[in-house]
Amino acid sequence: MTTAVLIVAAGRGTRAGGEIPKQWQLLRGKPVLAHTLAAFAGMRIVLAIHPDDRARAAALAPDIPLVEGGATRAQSVKNALEALEGTGVTKVLIHDGARPLVSRALIARLEAALDAHPGAAPALAVTDALWRGEAGLVSGTQSRDGLYRAQTPQAFRFAEILAAHRAHPGNAADDVEVARAAGLDVAIVEGDEDNLKLTFPGDFARAGRLLEGRTMDVRMGNGYDVHAFTAGDHVWLCGVKVPHDKALLGHSDADVGMHALTDAIYGAMAMGDIGRHFPPSDPQWKGAASHIFLAHAANMVREKGYVISNCDVTLVCERPKIGPHAHAMQQELARIMGVEPGRVSVKATTSERLGFTGREEGIASIATCVLVRA
Ligand SMILES: Nc1ccn([C@@H]2O[C@H](COP(=O)(O)OP(=O)(O)OP(=O)(O)O)[C@@H](O)[C@H]2O)c(=O)n1
Ligand SMILES: C[C@](O)(CO)[C@H](O)COP(=O)(O)O
């Protein structure tokens, strides 16, 4: 499953005022959009922008693909969805660039809900009494039962929401409206009071106060693993099958690199190690592919609201030679964890023929991982 984040930032922000559109105005020293992009760090992002903002966007986010927005929010979304077609994306989170305070915990709730529904969106139940008003006077009351305040990101299965946008006349306030018009069920996920949309000038001060109260939590973990050689004709290392004149012995597939990395991630969250989550005494994990362990650890990271900032795996062996496979290993680890390959490093060293790795009795691996929660 490949998830893309589609951030719409092509509006002109007329209600917010200011010399430049609201998403480019500074909030605690950085453009609003920089905060929004940081909230999705490590995920695949596409940004819809106004043609006048191309230079600003290229300077702020040189590595993020840009799509030209349209005259309405719905048109901007549709343009970006069309640009994503055929790229292998299966799920999409559609988010307002003007909501810089979206949290990782909210993103994780949406991703979980999307496993069971074609769409999922955050909302807050209306808690204040509702009135109608005319000429400055209360003219009636309105039941608040079943009423919600809609937020973004709104999450969908990609093919369904693209088809829904293609079929819609184009005047929808949000993507939930488009999805519902196409008959898709959209699950309501608990929203976040802090996930405000900058709409009016006064919203900037509130967003600034909320950002000030946020502290960044950075966590580091390390992992170490060893597996002995046995008879065989290949080894599994960092998710790649490497031909060799021996195999590695273990309860699972003995992928020593992936085990060290998985332990580093659990360690960063103070959640023990692989053995705690997948006990070797449990026969169901005998011969298990280690990607199950790594994917579990990466999911825990998301559920706890962190992102994998980077990780680094070192394999210690004389043979097989790792260099020719290092790129494939990097790509595979990144795919399993759902992060950009640039955040994953795989390298190797020999131990100068010293010790058990030097005598080619087995392979050792050490890994480090850094998690960040903004
Ligand atoms: N043609 C448009 C209009 C809106 N948006 C984006 O949709 C989000 C939510 O829209 P809104 O808050 O209404 O933004 P603006 O249209 O910019 O604001 P205004 O209506 O005050 O001009 C914003 O991130 C905005 O940049 C967009 O990408 N393309
Ligand atoms: C999509 C949205 O953010 C949901 O709350 C909102 O509808 C878009 O902004 P607008 O102020 O309604 O234009």
UniProtKB/TrEMBL annotation:
Region described as 2-C-methyl-D-erythritol 2,4-cyclodiphosphate synthase: spans on this chain: 219-374
Pathway where it operates: Isoprenoid biosynthesis; isopentenyl diphosphate biosynthesis via DXP pathway; isopentenyl diphosphate from 1-deoxy-D-xylulose 5-phosphate: step 2/6; Isoprenoid biosynthesis; isopentenyl diphosphate biosynthesis via DXP pathway; isopentenyl diphosphate from 1-deoxy-D-xylulose 5-phosphate: step 4/6
Gene3D superfamilies associated with the record: 2-C-methyl-D-erythritol 2,4-cyclodiphosphate synthase, Spore Coat Polysaccharide Biosynthesis Protein SpsA, Chain A
Annotated site residue numbers, Transition state stabilizer: 15, 22, 251, 350
Cofactor(s) demanded: a divalent metal cation
Keywords: Isoprene biosynthesis, Lyase, Metal-binding, Multifunctional enzyme, Nucleotidyltransferase, Transferase
The reaction(s) this protein catalyses: 2-C-methyl-D-erythritol 4-phosphate + CTP + H(+) = 4-CDP-2-C-methyl-D-erythritol + diphosphate; 4-CDP-2-C-methyl-D-erythritol 2-phosphate = 2-C-methyl-D-erythritol 2,4-cyclic diphosphate + CMP
Residues where 4-CDP-2-C-methyl-D-erythritol 2-phosphate binds: 225-227, 251-252, 273-275, 349-352, 356, 359
GO terms, biological process: isopentenyl diphosphate biosynthetic process, methylerythritol 4-phosphate pathway; terpenoid biosynthetic process
Residues covered by region (2-C-methyl-D-erythritol 4-phosphate cytidylyltransferase): 1-218
Residues binding a divalent metal cation: 225, 227, 259
GO molecular function: 2-C-methyl-D-erythritol 2,4-cyclodiphosphate synthase activity; 2-C-methyl-D-erythritol 4-phosphate cytidylyltransferase activity; metal ion binding
Protein family (similarity comment): Belongs to the IspF family.
Role according to the record: Bifunctional enzyme that catalyzes the formation of 4-diphosphocytidyl-2-C-methyl-D-erythritol from CTP and 2-C-methyl-D-erythritol 4-phosphate (MEP) (IspD), and catalyzes the conversion of 4-diphosphocytidyl-2-C-methyl-D-erythritol 2-phosphate (CDP-ME2P) to 2-C-methyl-D-erythritol 2,4-cyclodiphosphate (ME-CPP) with a corresponding release of cytidine 5-monophosphate (CMP) (IspF).
Protein name: Bifunctional enzyme IspD/IspF
Lineage, top ranks: Bacteria, Pseudomonadati, Pseudomonadota, Alphaproteobacteria, Rhodobacterales
